[in-house]
UniProtKB/TrEMBL annotation:
Bilayer disposition of the protein: Multi-pass membrane protein
Function, in words: Required for the export of heme to the periplasm for the biogenesis of c-type cytochromes.
Domain of life, source organism: Bacteria
Membrane-spanning segments: 21-41, 47-68, 103-123, 129-154, 161-182, 194-218
Family: Belongs to the CcmB/CycW/HelB family.
Gene: ccmB
UniProt subcellular location: Cell inner membrane
Keyword field: Cell inner membrane, Cell membrane, Cytochrome c-type biogenesis, Membrane, Transmembrane, Transmembrane helix, Transport
Name of the protein this chain belongs to: Heme exporter protein B
Entry keyword annotation includes Coiled coil: no
Pfam families from the UniProt entry: CcmB
Amino acid sequence: MMRAFLAVVARDLRLAGRIGGSGALSLVFFLMIVALVPFGLGPDLNLLARIGPGILWIAAVLATLIGLDRLFQADEEDGSLDLLVGAPAPLELVVLAKVAAHWLGTGLPLALATPLFGLLVALSPTAMAATGLTLLVGTPALTFIGAVGAALTASIRRGGLILAVVVLPLMIPTLIFGVSAADAALGGTVPFGTPLMILAALSLVAAVVGTLAAAAALRWGE
């Protein structure tokens, strides 16, 4: 089972690197949002620093949607999805591997780039580190939630808009606790560990429920 899991992860990462995966596009989109918001808010550095974690989290949520519609659709189009569904390995394991590979190529780079992009919204080093940690813990939840929508729209051409409409409301709790954790690190009334643990729990629940729901959606689509 572990060999099958690693083989699917390696395959998806290799394909993403060969054809130019969504990771670079997500980073560029993330940078564009973070860079444009200060122009709209003006030169008030105190305001930017206060709402900076929220800006980074909203940008990360929107950037996560980049390429999600191709998570299963590309395999559906070339016929490999049928082979994956009929493989000896459980479909849930295959889905988990594909989502893990997608997060490694998109969510992880977003979290690692947060301290650098935090300079654009005048974040302090503490705020940069806290926001980066919350994104590292919370982006798996966004990816697994998005995987459910990707599985539902796998057979729909240009289903990106439908995917966004379906999954964005489900991402709101992760966004709320992610921003709450980042704000708590800057001296909020709630200890930093409390919303961070809730955020970690959301990622774990999303990993289990999202994997099962995405696998069921793929079976239903067949």
